[in-house]
Amino acid sequence: MSLYPVRMDVKPEVTAFFDEATNTISYIVKDPSSTACAIIDSVMDIDYAAGRITHDHADKMINFIKDNELKLEWIIETHVHADHLSAAPYIQDKLGGKIGIGQKIMVIQDTFGKIFNEGTDFQRDGSQFDALFEDGDTYQIGNMTAFAIYTPGHTPACMVHVMGDAAFAGDTLFMPDGGSARADFPGGDAGQLYDSIQKVLALPEQTRLFMCHDYGPNGRDIKWETTVGDEKKFNIHVGSGKTKEEFVKFRTERDAQLSVPKLIIPSLQVNMRAGHVPQDEDGNPVLKIPVNGL
After folding, report:
1. Fewer CB within 10 Å, N- or C-terminus of the chain?
2. Contacts of 289 by beta carbon, 8 Å cutoff, 6+ apart
3. Strand partners, 210
């Protein structure tokens, strides 16, 4: 049984936006009893080879909110993503809303502040964000109470956000045939990830579960919605009662075979700053490439 205050009678309207370049799914989540909404895991477009940033994906979400006369109250990051850049400040500038992430962002900022040799001007206290969530913290989206579950393992700052009967998994879980996310980034831990997944699987089985990524395993069409019940039964990494020992062995061996995400260098620098691109001393946007640092 879940220890969290799930409201299965509250059924938010969820609209998904798939980014083909990064296989990311962003969401607009609307309170069913008002015009209030939240955005989960937005994407900023980058042509890394050309060093060019654009906002086509974010503009689609902004236009949807405007066209439907919604009020954006929250821009949620489930964690510091290593495979896409957040568009949170761009969206906030257009529509308002508060940017929120897990309180352990400070661990990420400290770790990668050293890797990217950030100076003393880079604050490592999470102050780039408007809200830092701890396990079980609640917040309002209109009349709907949302809450955050601390789910470390993929990164030290991962959180799953629950809004009514819908939960947004970040990278903690993938679709049942996709399994789980890697746990070999700095601060990641396969044992922690297993324990975190069990917290998510303790939610009511009818809970709608929305993924941050999907890669269409075995050539199937891209999907992003499942249920806690289906994950418990069918998830290829943790379903059907797989033990922690089995999971840690598999995850550790699998992670050793994975390559580094192609956008990890720009993503970490931008996302640990709440979506802001770092600047040089003249105020020009610039990204660093640490050599042999990752």
Report:
1. N
2. 265
3. 168, 225
pLDDT in tens, 196-206: 999 999 999 99
Tens digit of each residue's pLDDT (9 = 90 or more) over 165-181: 999 999 999 999 999 99
Token digits of residue 130? 């408007």
pLDDT at 1 over 60: no
- Tell me if residue 32 falls in helix, strand or coil: coil
Find all residues with CB under 8 Å of 58, minimum gap 6, and list them: 42, 43, 44, 45, 87, 90, 91
Indicate the average pLDDT of the chain: 95
Domain layout of the chain by residue ranges: 13-271
Distance (Å, rounded) from C-alpha 221 to C-alpha 195?
30
Residue 134, Ramachandran bin (φ over 0: left; ψ between -120 and 50: alpha; else beta): beta
Q: Which of 102, 85, 83, 91 is nearest to 28 (CA)?
A: 91
How far apart are alpha carbons 168 and 40 in whole angstroms?
8
Exposure string for 281-293, b = 16+ CB within 10 A, e = fewer:
eeeeeeeeeeeee
Q: What is the predicted pLDDT for the residue at 294? A: 74
d(CA 235, CA 177): 6
φ and ψ at residue 101, rounded to 5 degrees: -155, 170
> Residue 81 corresponds to which amino acid?
H
Which residue in 64, 156, 145, 70 sits closest to 109, CA to CA?
156
Domain 13-271 class, CATH top level: alpha beta
Burial class (CB in 10 A: 0-12, 13-18, 19+), 186: middle
Residue range 133-170, pLDDT digits in tens? 999 999 999 999 999 999 999 999 999 999 999 999 99
